[in-house]
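Write out the bound-state structure for coenzyme A.
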Amino acid sequence: MASDNVSVFREGLLAGQVGLVTGGGSGIGLGISELLAALGMHVVIASRKPEHFEAARERIAAAGGAVSSVALDVRDQARVREVVDGVTQQHGRLDLLVNNAAGNFYAPSATLSPNAWKAVVEIDLYGTFHCSQAVYPAMKAQGGGRIVSTSMTLHYRGWPQMAHATAAKAGVDALTRTLAVEWAPERIRVNAIAPGPIPTEGVRKAFTPPAESGIPDRFAVADQQMDAYAQQRIPLGRWGTPRDIANMVAYLASPAGDWITGSIFVIDGGEWLARQ
Ligand code: COA
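---
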């Protein structure tokens, strides 16, 4: 059973804090934004797509959360600085950065275009660095802060057709460890999370037979195939939820995360260890 409707965190745990969540308007990022806001943090959602962040902002505000949003492509270093400066000026502080924005797609390495490689590496790795570097002055000035970056587990072994993303996320892991040590004197804790399989729209699509297949209830077929996948491939027997991932971010943002830095937390129901 997923923990989506159970909170182990006390009400108001993150009250008074301000957090910036990149890619915070959909999928795992939205789950993170929602939980942080529910715990009292003012969450700033940064996303490339207004249709994502506007809907997310309304949803969080309707649930009583303090939330704002801003358009941001993390590849644009000047814009990242502008956004971070704007947030710190407006709120007077910045306690948490969640580097969640990511992009990837399956593509054979032999034919990957330079621009395709660049797009993913720039979002996943450069974007993480741009944002981390941009929050440093404010976090240093206020005596500390937290950075949580989203990694993955695919680079722990070979993962065909994901050269760009696996290389970038390996870089995110290295960056996490290095910044953790380099910025510990400023009391900036730098950690990463490595989510396992979460049934996003893209995953569901991959399990759904195409419309042309003529299968009458192809969505029921997708559900069955996804259940079978969870039983066979995920040791804990179920798919993850954005909330499974968000719980770790909330923990790291809380006082419980005070002595944790340079760690990469795999949250995947045991999936990668059992991977064939
Ligand atoms: N296979 C091969 N190449 C691909 C591709 C695919 N499935 N998807 C995109 N590319 C290539 C494009 O052809 C382009 O290269 P080119 O200029 O040589 O043709 C390059 O990648 C950039 O693509 P583009 O869509 O213009 O870039 P973007 O900056 O707008 O967006 C992504 C980049 C990665 C975000 C985008 O491809 C995307 O939306 N991916 C799927 C969604 C996603 O990643 N969600 C997050 C999941 S963690």
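---
Residues 102-105, 107, 113, 115-116, 119-120 surround coenzyme A (CB under 6 Å).
The helical segments are 27-38, 50-62, 77-91, 114-141, 163-183, 201-207, 218-233, 242-253.
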